[in-house]
Amino acid sequence: MRRLFRRGSSAPTSTPDQGLCPELAAAAGQDPEPRTPGECEDCAALGEQVWAHLRMCLECGRVSCCDSSPHQHATAHFHASGHPVMRSHEPGENWRWCYVHSTLG
Question: Which terminal residue of the chain has fewer beta carbons within 10 Å of its beta carbon, N or C?
């Protein structure tokens, strides 16, 4: 199932699955070692330890804070690097997100 965000809404909506997006397909099986396990790399550099959840870039292993965190470093990393897919870096979670297509995988 493909999930998209509606304009003005933070809740995902579902659309019929058109197949895995190319970025998620390319990231299948990728799971690099996290560069800073258990902490947001950018927040740590700022001397901050406050974030909501952690995400890890599947291209380079950078661990960053989510969009519910004060600095939203994971999204900033996507915009700066162009690395399209991240995964949750929270215990027990294994979902992935494509920034290009706003698709959960």
Answer: N
